[in-house]
Amino acid sequence: MLQKLATDSNYLKEVRxxxxxxxxxxxxxxxxxxxxFCVRSCSLDALNYYHYAxxxxxxxxFRALVAGGGTGDTTIALAExxxxxxxxxxxxxxxLNSMQIAKARATVRGLDNITWIHGSILDAEKLFNxxxxxxxxxxxxxxxxxxxxxxxxxxxxxxxxxxxxIMLYASYGRESIYQIQRLMRIINKNEADMQRKVDxxxxxxxxxxxxxxxxxxxxxxxxxxxxxxxxxxxLFLHSHDVAYSVPDIYRFLAGSGLQPxxxxxxxxxxxxxxxxxxxxxxxxxxxxxxKRLSVEESQxxxxxxxxxxxxxxxxxxxxxxxxxxxxxxxxxxxLYMIVNKQMYHDLYQIAANAKIGxxxxxxxxxxxxxxVNTPNLSRICKAMDGDxxxxxxxxxxxxxxxxxxxxxxxxxxxxEFKAFFAAFNKQDLMFLRHKSLPRMVTMExxxxxxxxx
Length: 453
Hints:
By secondary structure, this protein is α/β, with parallel strands linked by helices. Helix content is about 40%, strand content about 15%. It has 19 helices and 13 strands.
């Protein structure tokens, strides 16, 4: 689709200058021929499960706005998942250079479901007549002069039943970054050239002692190693960078009538327990007390307890959604899009070749899943294929027993499956959707069709 141009300029000059000169994250369009990058919060698997109760049909009339789309990670991820469907992805960004990289990536992939708009998210209400089902604002709002105004502008174009996927910097985990930022403002006080600022920062980092907070914490920050000068500028030299604690996020969202509905993790081994203080205190004398805290208090305490959360990635909406339940046997259990379908068979083999009660640690990519083998787990896994409902799976399990064998009850099968599902869902490796919906696109599907582009 043709690029539209915004009529107004509404942004911080220094921020736009940075992203014109140092587009972030740096991406090579030619690598699109081999790779597909998609974080959990941007996947339709997670979106349907955590916001639409597993009942959203994405094949008709879906509209998504990527507000501050940059070099295109989120835009490409959404456009690929919606390829060939009745959906529109709108990429909005203030940096023409960054947007050109994103457009080149889309061209390599042959994507034609993206509308390109050069402009500011603060002009959202002027730019768009129709509201969006999904608004992605990842790593953007915290760079605005007035983040609350940016959030309010986006909320005006969000459907009442829509959802925002937001990423904001986390204040406690990034404190070492802010120490370097303050240091560089002193060092670069009289320096205007952007590259010399970067070079000065390299000198500072190479001479920083082991007592320096960033040197002690640098293992959780990959930008310098992965993105070079661009990573250094974005991490240490950004002209406007605001960070948030969990309570800050609740207050920030409340100003626009929103609430956080699900916090995501990245590669943390705790998975979805990352923001639950009761998970840290399990088995201690504070275990019961921690379970009595409100959701916000538990999340706030968990952030402080962990100390190394460097960004908050979460869904936000105008209402509290309900996640689909394993108790509803009309739901279909399926593995997350990045997991190869061979894993269904592998899980069956693991359970079939083990003793009842054995505890397994199953590693899928960087995610470790621990689960207990139960009497019918191998039969449940054998029946699972990502398309059958729990009702169909349980019927198949019961039919696999001979007339002389005692068949498990429906409740017994539900109990076994719920424990198995909880272990995988904790790492966002298994979700549920209603049986009336079509199978969602997988990583395998996307990589296979890329070979024909």
